[in-house]
Amino acid sequence: MTDLKALIKQGEGISVEFKECRRTLSRDIYETVCAFLNRHGGTLLLGVNDAGEITGVDSDCVEQIKKDFVTAINNPQKINPACYLSVDEVQIDGKAVLHVFVPESSQVHRCNERIFDRNEDGDLDITDHTRMVGDMYHRKQTTYSENKVYPHATPEHLRKDLIAKCRTIATLRREDHPWGHMDDLDLLKSAQIYQTDPETGKSGVTLAGILLLGKDDVILTSVPHHRTDLILRKVNLDRYDDRDFVTTNLIESYERIMAFIAKHLSDPFYLEGDMRISIRDAIFREVASNILIHREYINPFPAKLIIERGQVRTENSNNPHGFGLIDPANFTPLPKNPVIARFFREIHRADELGSGMRNMMKYGKAYGGEDPEMIEGDVFRIVVKVPEFGATAPQRVPLKAQSGAQSGAQSETILQALGEGSLSANELTKTLELKSKTGAFKRMIKELLDRKFIEYTIPDKPNSRLQKYRLTDAGKHVQQTEEE
Questions:
Q1: Could you read off the pLDDT of 79-122 as tens digits, one per residue?
Q2: DSSP conformation class of 158
Q3: Fold classification of 2-140 (topology level)
Q4: Which CATH topology does 228-385 take?
């Protein structure tokens, strides 16, 4: 009961849903069950309203509600494939609450012939969104996309010089490394990037092999959306100050990421014991390898590394095993692309699973003053705070100059309006005399959030219907100086 009270106090989220259901089951309850089954499971509490108030289920209706619920979810015309869930009655503050735990399913389920997915505290009908449905089916598979065999891809489609380079790196660090005595094909087989498809019986280079060692034209043909966007954005916030658009193999992609980091980030003096080490490289070695190793490559979402004033942000598509901010103390690392990860370890571009993250956390605070953040989701995000050594305090540039006259003026209006108190998106559109939340309005809000001038009043639920915005200390400072 104590755990349920704590759960209710946290409020609704991606794995928690409240339904009042005082005398009958609400019509959308099965959509939530379907969404939980399709995502990562969750807890359904009947007898609690959206505000987290325990209203209770009427005692004379409890048994009928339990019976109706179990009957419906075992009916393939309601939930297909049908599933079995138990309903537990608990007493909280003298009121009956029905507790249903919905586990994650290995199948894709439909409710009334529609497919639902879970996002924040809402259930989304994705039936007509082909890509989202495809992603869901892929997420339910037990195989890794990196092992897809391309029967027409042979060792001739790979770069021999890159294979030789990797062999040399591996044997330099370990003289008896088996790659040193293998020809190219045996090396590829040893690394599991040349395999035989168990369904067709045909052999070929895998997706992992093409990404690691493929010629650029082969990569473009096999994975046309593959790219890593490296951006420096400190002065020109609308575009960028420097950029590297990386579409090559993963080995050279790693080197270009590290070169971009070395070009634009300082490396302060740091002693560990009596030896100087580069904490910048220790941190961003893990960041770079994470972008490349743990990306879901069948997803066209482009990977990004953005260097901003005071921080570095990364984004890459992900096959998540959970959602939200990762707690390093209670984190169990799971391989996303084990073949690519193993290859990176053999050439000393990555550490054992989990140890690289520990190094990033170990040195992150010493480097930038705050612990790095890792946020798990369909898009995996990392935020690393960085120092600005040698930089003078930036000259304040008016918002109008930074964002253009019109959008800058509207940004000023938003800051001025929030100076009076927190407001919702709809209230802000009325302040700007807009008929709806236009694309330009959404971009302004995102820019103000990214620049830490405003923040959510409910940070854990960005899409909550009760969400509002308020000024940060930085936003208050900008708002005051704009008025001067």
A1: 988 777 778 889 988 899 999 988 887 778 899 999 999 987 78
A2: B
A3: 3.30.950
A4: Heat Shock Protein 90 (3.30.565)
